[in-house]
Amino acid sequence: MKIVTDSGMDTAPGQLDGFDVVQVPLKLELDGKTYLSGVDIQPEEFYELLLTTPSLPITSLPSPGEFADVFRKYAAEGPILMVHISSGLSNTYQSAHSGADLVPEAEVHFIDTMTLSGAEGWQVEAAAHGAKAGWSVDQIKELVKKVRDASETIYTLPDLRYLIHGGRISHMKGLLASVLGIKPLIGVSKTDGKYFERGKSPTFPRALESIAKTITKDIPEGTKIRAQIAHTANPEGAEKLRKAMDKLFDCHWLPNSTVAPVLGAHTGRGLVGVVYARMDRYPALP
Questions:
Q1: What is the domain partition of the chain in residue ranges?
Q2: Predicted pLDDT of residue 163
Q3: What span, in angstroms and rounded, lies between the C-alpha atoms of 3 and 65?
Q4: In terms of DSSP H, where are the helices of the chain?
């Protein structure tokens, strides 16, 4: 079995070492140059580049033909399981489906993660564990569903220009929040896989503290949780969020991840977020 994903996923360095995962890169364009996220440009390079230009990036998908090339390459190795970024936030799902239609000899299965970034990474991680253990497609799909059901994500960011530019929040609502200096707390809905507001704060430092407090609405203080922070060139903010989380929960931390360029193109520098799950509800990985 071959696990295939996209570059809308974030994991920490080494998190997928020893696992056979193929990543199809999404694309971004900045100042007239096109990059394959995670291939031609790495996160650190991208966030440094944002400091040197007033331009805002544009993102695009792999074409059906590009997905078809990947599926054709691995068709003879058995089932292919495509674990992709939320269909509510990207048309990657549709493009991959169209690509699979071009390769009838390939047995391609799909999992809509209904999320992105680190939360998508956790689902890919689970699928990779299942594949390495020799599990069937149905067994892996069930494992990934348990991970999806158990985990949540929440993030905040200091600059809304990128979200507005990318159409991820409404222009008028985003402009109003920017003028008022409001920093939203953003989650991803498990119903439609789209962003929704989980709260808001008047300043970015307050927003970081509010993330941990917002999580207590769903998980009691002191609960053991699996957690992983992701950020866009903001290690100081990541540390502040970690301390705020540790005050309220018994956190079992995975190493931090830096958000992929193609995702950071919609947020800019400074974002900090966390993916988390109650330990007693998170499935054991084989």
A1: 2-150, 151-281
A2: 83
A3: 18
A4: 43-50, 64-74, 92-101, 117-132, 137-150, 161-165, 171-180, 204-215, 235-248, 261-264
**Residue type at 130?**
G
Contact of 4 with 80, CB cutoff 8 Å: yes
- Sign (positive or negative) of CA dihedral 105, 100, 146, 8: positive
**SS3 state of residue 228:** strand
Which fold does the domain 151-281 belong to in CATH? Answer: Hypothetical Protein Tm841; Chain: A;domain 3 (3.30.1180)
What tokens were used for 78? 């058995």
- Residue 182 has what DSSP assignment? -
CB 6 within 8 A of CB 84: yes
CATH dotted code for 2-150 = 3.40.50.10170
Helix and strand numbers, DSSP H then E, in the chain:
10, 14
Q: What is the pLDDT of residue 164?
A: 78
Structure tokens at 192: 């439609």
223, 227, 174, 228: which is closest to 197 by C-alpha? 174
Residue 201 DSSP SS3: strand
So what's the pLDDT on residue 11?
Answer: 97
Give the chain's residues under pLDDT 50: 171-172, 174-175, 179
Closest CA to 274 of 140, 154, 139: 154
**Amino acid, single-letter form, for residue 68:** A
Burial 86-124 (b: 16+ CB within 10 A, else e): bbbbbebbebbbebbeebeebebebbbbbbbbbbbbbbb
- In single-letter form, the type of residue at position 84 comes to H
Q: Taking a C-beta distance cutoff of 8 angstroms, is the pair 213, 248 a contact?
A: yes
pTM for the structure as a whole: 0.95
DSSP state of 86: -
Of 159, 147, 189, 166, the C-alpha closest to 276 is 147
Instruction: Give the amino acid at 161.
Output: R
pLDDT of residue 171: 45
